[in-house]
Amino acid sequence: MGDNAFVVVANRLPVDRVGGRYEVSPGGLVAALAPVLRSREGCWVGWPGDVGVELEPFMFNGISLVPVALDQEDFEGFYEGFSNSTLWPLYHDLIVTPEYKQEWWERYVAVNEKFARAAAGAAAHGATVWVQDYQLQLVPGMLKALRPDLTIGFFLHIPFPAPALFQQLPWRNEVLEGLKGCDLIGFQRHADEDNFRLLTTEIRTGTFPISIDLGEIEAAPEASIRNLRERVGDPEHLLLGVDRLDYTKGILQRLLAIESLLEEGKLDDIAFIQLATPSRERIEHYRTTRREVEEAIGRINGRFGDVGRPVVHYVHRSIPREQLGTYYAAADIMLVTPFKDGMNLVAKEYVAAHPGGDGALVLSEFAGAAVELHQAYLCNPFDLESVKDAIMAATEPDPARMRQMHDWVVEHDVAAWARAFLEAL
Ligand code: ADQ
């Protein structure tokens, strides 16, 4: 038993190792939970991000971090395997086919046990423990068995599939049992909660749409916005995409929509910036998606670009947080076109960067964010014409729509999200 009254358990610790030392990894979850962790003498249990590294608990920026070590087999079986090649595609409605492998499942159980034991060791008597996301669905049940005195919450950041899909999972009963160790499970959308409740009503559930830390998207200076637009040739319409390079995000679909509009002569003076963070690159489906995206970019630039004047500006790396605000502010049209997405924080970040009502958001109906940001130009990424129509509508945006969305995001930030969940718990 430890002495922490509040414990967050997540796959990753909120730090990245950069050249031998740790830096805070940016993200809303850290921003939302850091104040709670500090005020409630809390700690964060998670994997530091390096395979095979054993670390003692350490303090970082006033937060106590409890590292869980993963070896190469854990990384391959638990992380790349069961989490990202089984659960991720299954929970995103089979955009690619999930793989079901007994040895991955066994690693998932073993690693969930490591996390549960670490959390049990860190929590004080009667503490509150908040477990995050699909990688750790067995932790609540394991933790309840070890420590019946704890109050345990769980939040699922990704969608929860319809029962007919979930029931494909050979270990569906074990996963449900794991989740049943909770006192409260939170979902992004009512639709996810409803799907879950068709399987069991034994556990208390709720819908808590996650949001962003408004302080992280800094107001961009006018000069840097102008500079960015000049660098891409001062187009009439500057379009932007910002994603992890993941097959759920529909990056290829937005490129095909742009290509088709250029072909039809409906758009001409445009530039499209696609920022894509490398992601899960050892998994074949991710490599295929990257290949398809890069091929389309090459083709579009070859057909419609010119020397020194490409149509698509593509950056395959993570952009520092402080620069992201300039991209968002400079873009006339933001393209968020996932086939399926728990929430999609990029959509909210873009809206946050447009307090004046300028700009337009093209948003997939299948992103959780579409529930709250319903004034966006909504589209169906499975229907190319629908994406094209939304882009065309966004070329003449209604500022009232952006203002309403901006007001909503300002009122409903990530701190409000964390507060709502913890109060319900
Ligand atoms: P993700 O699938 O990672 O999150 P998202 O919500 O869009 O998706 O968050 C991505 C974050 O990474 C954003 O904050 C964005 O700014 C940042 N980012 C993306 N590309 C970047 C780049 N090239 N450079 C710098 N930063 C970049 C999962 C779920 C989502 C859910 C979140 C939170 O899949 O549906 O919204 O968790 O619950």
From TrEMBL:
One of its GO terms (molecular function) is glycosyltransferase activity. InterPro entries: Glyco_trans_20. The keyword Magnesium does not apply. Signal peptide: none annotated. Gene3D superfamilies: Glycogen Phosphorylase B. It comes from the Bacteria. It holds the Pfam family Glyco_transf_20. It catalyses: CDP-alpha-D-glucose + D-glucose 6-phosphate = alpha,alpha-trehalose 6-phosphate + CDP + H(+); ADP-alpha-D-glucose + D-glucose 6-phosphate = alpha,alpha-trehalose 6-phosphate + ADP + H(+); GDP-alpha-D-glucose + D-glucose 6-phosphate = alpha,alpha-trehalose 6-phosphate + GDP + H(+); TDP-alpha-D-glucose + D-glucose 6-phosphate = 5-methyl-UDP + alpha,alpha-trehalose 6-phosphate + H(+). Its EC number is 2.4.1.347. Keywords: Glycosyltransferase, Transferase. Belongs to the glycosyltransferase 20 family. This is alpha,alpha-trehalose-phosphate synthase (ADP-forming). It comes from Corynebacterium jeddahense.
